[in-house]
């Protein structure tokens, strides 16, 4: 009996065990409320606090950029981070644990759409207030959401399907140029296309159609790869998809209709933060449902043993082609958003460096996992921005980090883990309170 008591979480020795027991049992809702309070504090008290602690301005990325640019500012940045983020989030989450658990329990009594919308509303509220500080934060968030979509779509192929594809920047380019031509031709006055064909007021409403158009073009491109490559076995998909990437890049560079090597500009400003956030949420939801569906399970069977899957009446070729075109569609949508976030697109963007970035996010976060894709995209996107002051040394640190992950976690940080929305939002047990 004494042995059982000694192993109880509340009896753990050490600072880490004590900290874990203090913050255990807090639902996601509690952490979101804490984050919302923290960004509100920064919004109203950030500037006065910055003046008092001697910083030039509010740290845009949690103090990382200030620390790397001006090491003497490390104490001030640490104080700001503690007073604005760490302490308020910890206090609100811990003090409101019982309330947030009760609220989460009440929300779970409703249809799943209700608690999902509440959690997403709190998340977007925190993100929106946080981004109000500077345009740089807004741009960083938009590119991060685009990276999540790209990473998830590539994980469908490289993770769930078990093939190695190098064609994603090509799909992204097709989607970016397809959506850009759609919006610029119809709603923008441009030197290449002339006056708009439709009233500009219709643009924001038809922008989703443009993104879907770009995604469909990318899917057609995927079909061009899938027909020859899925008749073969082994590493042929990697070779054919890499060739496809170079073909798409070279083709766009030689098409004066879309600006050639100079690129295409003049995209309307339709990709605001709420729009990009909604598309990223839709992408996560649809891809998560896809990989958990019967088709997704068939895809896993094909990955594990194609011969056995074929013997169990799985149409392996059709399954792989559908998954490949599905992933290409979302890469194309992400490319369309990317073009409208930057309001400029250039064929040089969609080369080997972009391929390396997306592959790094997939394998860093974890294969066969929606959690992993989100983690990889968010962490490497923010890390890349935080290390920007180091310039060329950034491209030494990030690869070293990836090498360490590949050594100690070959499948990535969070691999082979299902994303269950109900489990994420449900209230946590308060066993530590009861003891």
Please describe the structure with a list of short key phrases separated by commas or semicolons.
single chain, 435 residues, mainly alpha, ABC transporter involved in vitamin B12 uptake, BtuC, two-stranded antiparallel sheet, 2 strands, globular
Question: What topology does this entry show?
Answer:
Elements: H1 2-6, H2 14-23, H3 28-53, H4 64-69, H5 74-95, H6 97-107, H7 113-131, H8 135-160, H9 168-187, H10 203-229, H11 236-253, E1 264-265, H12 273-292, H13 294-304, H14 306-311, H15 316-342, E2 344-345, H16 352-365, H17 370-386, H18 394-408, H19 421-425, H20 431-434
Antiparallel strand pairs: 1-2
Helix pairs in contact: 3-5, 3-7, 7-8, 8-12, 8-15, 8-16, 8-17, 9-10, 9-11, 9-15, 10-15, 12-13, 13-15, 16-17
- Provide the β-strand percentage band: under 5%
Range of helix content: over 70%
Strand order of the largest sheet: 1-2
- Contiguous runs where pLDDT drops below 50 for at least 5 residues: 1-13, 431-435
Would you count the extended β strands for me? Answer: 2
CATH architecture of the largest domain: Orthogonal Bundle
What is the radius of gyration computed over CA atoms, rounded to a whole number of angstroms? 24 Å
Number of self-contained structural domains? 2
For the biggest sheet, the summary is: 2 strands, antiparallel
Mean model confidence by pLDDT: 86
Based on secondary structure, the structural category is mainly alpha
Q: How is the CATH topology of the largest domain named? A: ABC transporter involved in vitamin B12 uptake, BtuC
Number of helical elements:
20
| Shape type | globular
Give helix and strand order, one letter per element, not per position.
Answer: HHHHHHHHHHHEHHHHEHHHHH
Span between N and C termini? 16 Å
CATH hierarchy class name of the largest domain: Mainly Alpha
